[in-house]
Write a structure and sequence with these properties.
Helix 2 (21-27) packs antiparallel against helix 3 (31-39), helix 3 (31-39) runs parallel beside helix 6 (69-75) and helix 6 packs antiparallel against helix 7. With 94 residues, the protein is mainly alpha-helical. The chain has helices at 2-6, 21-27, 31-39, 44-52, 61-64, 69-75, 79-87.
Amino acid sequence: MTAALRAGTDPERADSEGTAPLCAASVNGRASIAGLLLSAGASPGTVRELLVHGADPDVREDHGTGWSPLERARHGSRPATVALLTAAGASGSR
């Protein structure tokens, strides 16, 4: 995924069924992929949809030892995503 994003793959390009990559990564428990997509510019609208459908705003990648979504959004300079996660109760603390 990292190589594809570096090569210019659109982090929001949906698959043939219309599923956004961030949604697919999140639904399938691929927190590290979701973090990469957020860092690459995946839309806060997708994050909003995930939160509306019950996504945990504090789930950490790497089986709970990695970054939280809030830390990823802050590191990737995504203020809209930071605001959404904070409003959803994300703490970003360990």
